[in-house]
Design goal:
The chain has a two-stranded antiparallel ribbon with strand order 1-2. The relative contact order is 0.05. By secondary structure, the chain is mostly helical. The protein has helices at 2-23, 41-97, 100-113, 117-130, 134-144, 151-165, 168-181, 185-197, 201-213, 219-236, 242-255, 260-272, 276-289, 293-300, 308-320, 326-338, 342-354, 360-372, 376-388, 409-422, 428-431, 474-479, and strands at residues 27-32, 35-40. Helices cover 66% and strands 2% of the residues. α9 (201-213) packs antiparallel against α10 (219-236). Among the domains are: 80-144; 164-215, no CATH class.
Length: 501
């Protein structure tokens, strides 16, 4: 629109000038070297304009001819740069697509066309990685270490190559240098992962603390990872330095109360130092956050001198801290069966039998209840069902000798991320089907003596107990134990009244 207005204005001005010159013709005289000329003013102005235009054209041609070599050189440089960027684009696309050979060729072409050594080296390194040439990529990254602009990206590339080769020590070297120089999330992840892979729990814990200070990781995730690292570190020094192990385990339990391995280890170590109250507090906090059968075991064994009745009372109090949880119901049922409180056992087992998975543990407890009630046939049926029912992953965390969480170093390395990032306990022995080779712990409770029935309508009679804390017979002695591993029978048998063999 503006151009149209300007064009119209110029046309109007030209027309006005033409009319004015027509109305005022005038004359113009020229004299040069004896030559004289006289013409109208309008013609003189026209000739002057034409001459000016010719002079401009001639000057433009002279300038073009004079600058032609430089212009041609710039044209070639521009074409070369465009070709280089085209090769760079093709190399990046090929590298992202995994076309290693094409990426290497285009990277070499871009390096030859572009005078950008830093960019060319980076592109060549990425292309070599895409082609699977880790040695070539490593050489390019090492050359990039000399340039301050590419030092960090070189550290990242070298750390990545070291991880791919399984060289955790070299990955730690490069990642730690980058982690010190700048606030980089990849440096923290690489360094922390490599330290965990090497089992360097204390170094990993220090790295985690620094990352938390820099706000590179969420506080809750950092606390859970810290709990696992402290627990693994405590286990590593338990034999050589029990006091330090107890201190580390206590810190782990405080960092993440729901982490059962930390609470059980801390409770066991503190109890050995006669700090029973603190041990009980840690287990109770863990039970409120995330009940686990190992917590009940260590809680029941805190004071070896407790009588059976007092032990049962403490376990009932523990279950009351999280009464609606499935593990609390199971614990109440086990304690009730141990103390022969059949009504309480029936009340605790009823919701578990009515809904939820019928695991081997639940079936075994129900079988024992049926036997204590004198229902031998029902007990055998439930026992047979327990032998084929699915196990519980939590039970695999307790081995047949009763030591909770018998994990290897590799298991603890996995636990750092499973619990730290997902708040999920792993069960390595359950995953490896090791728990299938063991009996369901509750099946041993089926060996409890059956009640002796009196006359019709009378109450079931239990064996004489005497001192509740001291079982008299072998059967009572077995029953007095809270957990005792056994083996489920292959054939539950039939009732004696059937007469079959």
């Amino acid at each position: 629109m503006i151009r149209l207005i300007i064009t119209i204005a110029l046309c109007v001005l030209t027309a006005i000038a033409a009319v004015w010159l027509t109305l005022n013709p005038g004359t113009a005289q020229f004299e040069f070297l004896g030559w004289q000329a006289e013409t109208s003013f309008a013609l003189a102005m026209g000739l002057l304009l034409v001459l000016t235009f010719l002079l401009v054209v001639v000057w433009w041609l002279i300038v073009k001819i004079w600058t032609a070599p430089d212009t041609f050189r710039k044209f070639r440089e521009r074409r070369r740069r465009e070709s280089g960027f085209d090769a760079l684009e093709r190399a990046l696309i090929a590298s992202a697509a995994g076309q290693g050979e094409l990426a290497v060729r285009q990277a070499a072409r871009a390096d030859a066309l572009l005078d950008r050594p830093a960019l060319s080296r980076l592109l060549a390194a990425r292309a070599a990685e895409a082609a699977g040439d880790l040695a070539g990529a490593e050489g390019h990254y090492e050359a990039m270490l000399e340039d301050p602009r590419t030092k960090l990206v070189a550290r990242r590339g070298l750390a990545s190559i070291a991880e791919a080769r399984g060289d955790s020590q070299l990955a730690i070297t490069h990642a730690s240098d980058a982690f010190k120089d700048a606030k980089l999330r990849w440096a923290f992840d690489t360094l922390f992962n490599a330290q965990v892979a090497e089992g360097r729990w204390e170094d990993a814990r220090k790295t985690l603390a620094e990352a938390e200070r820099r706000k590179e990781i969420a506080p809750d995730r950092a606390a859970r990872r810290k709990a696992v690292l402290l627990t693994a570190e405590a286990l590593a020094c338990e034999q050589s330095d029990p006091d330090r192990a107890a201190e580390l385990a206590e810190k782990a339990a405080a960092a993440s109360p729901g982490f059962a391995p930390a609470a059980t280890l801390a409770a066991r170590l503190l109890a050995s130092k006669r700090r029973h109250r603190r041990a009980a507090e840690l287990v109770e906090a863990a039970w409120q956050a995330n009940p686990h059968p190992a917590l009940a075991r260590v809680y029941g064994d805190l004071r070896k001198s407790d009588s059976k009745a007092k032990r049962a009372e403490r376990l009932r109090a523990l279950a009351a801290l999280n009464p609606e949880h499935r593990e609390s119901r199971l614990l109440k049922a086990e304690v009730a069966l141990e103390t022969r409180n059949l009504d309480a056992a029936r009340s605790a087992l009823a919701p578990l039998l009515a809904g939820g998975p019928k695991t081997a543990r639940v079936c075994a407890l129900a079988s024992r209840l049926s036997r204590l009630e004198g229902e031998e046939e029902a007990a055998r049926r439930l026992m047979a069902r327990a032998a084929h029912a699915p196990g519980e992953a939590d039970w695999s965390d307790i081995d047949e000798q009763g030591r909770p969480f018998p994990y290897s170093d590799e298991d603890w390395k996995r636990m750092v991320f499973a619990w730290g990032d997902e708040a999920r306990l792993i069960h390595p022995r359950y995953e490896r089907f090791e728990s299938l080779a063991e009996a369901v712990p509750e099946t041993a409770l089926l060996e409890a003596p059956a009640t002796r029935r009196g006359p019709a309508g009378s109450e079931p009679q239990l064996p004489p107990s005497g001192d509740a804390s001291r079982p008299h017979s072998d059967e009572d002695r077995r029953d007095a134990r809270y957990y005792e591993p056994g083996r489920a029978p292959d054939d539950p048998g039939v009732g004696p009244e059937s007469g079959e063999r």
